[in-house]
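README, section 4: Worked example with a bound small molecule

Sections 1 through 3 covered apo chains. Here we extend the same pipeline to holo records, where the ligand is supplied as SMILES alongside the sequence. The molecule in this example is zinc ion. Nothing else about the input changes; the structure line simply encodes the ligand pose together with the chain.
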Amino acid sequence: MQDAPAKNKRTSKEVRRVIGHVTGKSTGPTVVFFGGIHGNEPAGVIALQRVFAKLKAVSPDQFTGECFGITGNLPAFSKKVRFVDEDLNRIWFLHRLEGLRAARNDQSVEAQEMLALYKLVTEILETASPPFYFIDLHTTSGATQPFIVVNDSLLNRKFTASYPLPVILGIEEYLTGALLSYINELGYVAFGYESGEHEDPAAIVNAENFIWYTLGLTGFYPFSELEMEQARAKLYQSGETSRRFYEIYHQYLIQKGAFFKMLPGFENFQIVPKGQAIAVNGKGNIITKKERQLFMPLYQEKGREGFYYIRGVPRFFLWLSKYLRKLKADALLVAFPGIRWASSKKEAILVDRRIVRFFAKSIFHLLGYRTREAGKHLFILKNRERSSRNAEYSKAIWHKKRP
Ligand SMILES: [Zn+2]
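The generated complex, written as structure tokens:
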């Protein structure tokens, strides 16, 4: 690749755009891992270096398909900062990509990184074979046990249910422009894995265990049933929080230039009682009005998401939403006044808030829609089910299993 390699103190070797690429003798799944999309998160990159060093020692006729390890933000990685000009995981918008492809002037360091990654992903999609899996390795600024973050499509849900880890749904309602949301909208399995706190050596080990288990799960690496059980046990032991589906229902967004500081000592998934001060902003303490479960408290300077609140998703809701989505029950929604398809592709609906007051957000969630504001009175709700490439995954072992 043409990108200049980056050096980072915590990695033993030079870091290149393509950390590793292994092709098996027989065709099969293509598994793509990203590390270092945020330059201050070296754990994923180091874990990928270790895994590829081991894969290289194995004969390719053991593998089925292809596996890639890719570094996200090389300039930020060499400076050990989250980003240089802007967050590489918040800029994946079609208009921005189109501008870059048309070679319109875009001075941002991260825009150039995005273009390089876009070209690489496009090349992989064109030359490798399905089913495709895209996994983004991250770490957090505060203490945490490992977890998965995923956009809420049935395909993503079904795949991530195979991990003995907490899975957080619904981040797409609060974060825009994430690399994996972009890939998800193309219909592929794509999700994020957070392996621990940035500087914790355990975050590297967790990421390594996670990569191996994923290589087994996708069918790329020929683990025996016993080996898969052992790999699963390692992930299970990486944390104690209930391994279930959670949903984000609140985000504290830091306004540009506003003061925000988390009070010290809060951990990811911590349950905070009512009436407790958790952070400080320009107006004083931020105090919980109810018992809350805290998610991703911000303990670094860069970043605009202060913290989130999450709650467990009831099993019944998961079950019901699966059937409603399979029945394409959302087609009934557009019969209501104030709700219409956004385009003839039927991948999104527009909801006029002045007319539609009686629908709870949870009804849209059930049907596979996540809301974004599209104007003063307008909501746009995107449905991932209609773009999911389900058929490409139907022969995978994990797909045949009952949930
Ligand atoms: Zn990150």
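What to look for in the output: DSSP finds twelve helices and 18 strands in the chain. The chain has a mean pLDDT of 88.

Section 5 describes how to batch many such records.
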